[in-house]
């Protein structure tokens, strides 16, 4: 899946996938669903593009109905996700809004239950990523917005969802390789991803008696709109070349990890993190 990425930049967070060149690979042509998630219902935050979109389509191919949460500026990408999910013969609910608002975090769960009557899988995936090469350039607003989006929403959506989850259901949190390595120019983002990793482990222990599994996925450099929306065009052109595999990954190389964690294949797995990162060893 070698990909040549030309220099490009977007000024809007978390980025618009429709404007990427080349377009990310969302699903492999030879991926065959086997009903691993037959008639399950999944709520995916940040499900309009990138990894979230790929997870939505893979889940749908495995038989799940989908609800996705996204910002209103990402409507074009969300409509593409809708088309892809419906092409798999499954239903999808679009939930535009602001996850920084506590009441909206509750409402997305309520709307999912209203539409589908149940909820089995929660994928906390939404994130923003702001670059600050000098730490003192960070504004308090940057810190608040990043934390409210990247970790507060995970707490709030999960809390609202728990009353509807039962034995065998699962929660999957998107963390990052930066949770383990840190990244000098992404201090807020890296620290929220570290918080997500710790949240995943703590929540897994908390919910083990209820037999609700909680796991995480920590991607490395994956080609999504978050990248050109975060760094310079020159840096984008070098994206992913510093990992052992010497290339960025594609969303379709990450999404099957979510299928595994959402399905009975991982029935004895909780409190763990999968690392699709191109070969970077982080011992975490």
TrEMBL record:
Keywords: Oxidoreductase. The keyword Cell wall biogenesis/degradation does not apply. The keyword Acyltransferase does not apply. Pfam families: adh_short_C2. InterPro entries: NAD(P)-bd_dom_sf, Sc_DH/Rdtase_CS, SDR_fam. NCBIfam families: PRK06701.1 (NF005214). Belongs to the short-chain dehydrogenases/reductases (SDR) family. This is SDR family oxidoreductase. It comes from Spirosoma taeanense.
């Amino acid at each position: 899946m070698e990909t040549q990425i030309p220099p490009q930049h977007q000024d809007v967070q978390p980025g618009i996938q429709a404007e990427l060149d080349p377009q990310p690979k969302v699903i492999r042509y030879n991926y065959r669903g086997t009903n691993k998630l037959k008639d399950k219902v999944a709520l995916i935050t940040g499900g309009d593009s990138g990894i979230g979109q790929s997870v939505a389509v893979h889940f749908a191919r495995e038989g799940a109905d989908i609800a996705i949460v996204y910002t209103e500026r990402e409507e074009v990408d969300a409509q593409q996700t809708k088309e892809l999910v419906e092409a798999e013969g499954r239903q999808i609910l679009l939930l535009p809004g602001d996850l920084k608002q506590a009441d909206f975090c509750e409402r997305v769960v309520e709307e999912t239950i209203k539409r589908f009557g149940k909820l089995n899988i929660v994928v906390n995936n939404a994130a923003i990523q702001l670059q600050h090469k000098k730490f003192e350039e960070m504004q308090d607003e940057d810190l608040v917005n990043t934390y409210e989006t990247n970790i507060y929403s995970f707490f709030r959506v999960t809390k609202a969802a728990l009353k509807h989850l039962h034995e065998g259901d699962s929660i999957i949190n998107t963390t990052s390789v930066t949770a383990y390595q840190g990244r000098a120019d992404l201090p807020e983002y890296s620290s929220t991803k570290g918080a997500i990793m710790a949240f995943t482990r703590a929540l897994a222990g908390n919910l083990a008696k209820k037999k609700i599994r909680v796991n995480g996925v920590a991607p490395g450099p994956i080609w999504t709109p978050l990248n050109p929306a975060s760094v310079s065009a020159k840096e984008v052109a070098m994206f992913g070349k510093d990992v052992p595999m010497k290339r960025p990954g594609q969303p379709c190389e990450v999404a099957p990890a979510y299928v595994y964690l959402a399905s009975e294949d991982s029935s004895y797995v909780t409190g763990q993190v999968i690392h699709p990162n191109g070969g970077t060893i982080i011992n975490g």
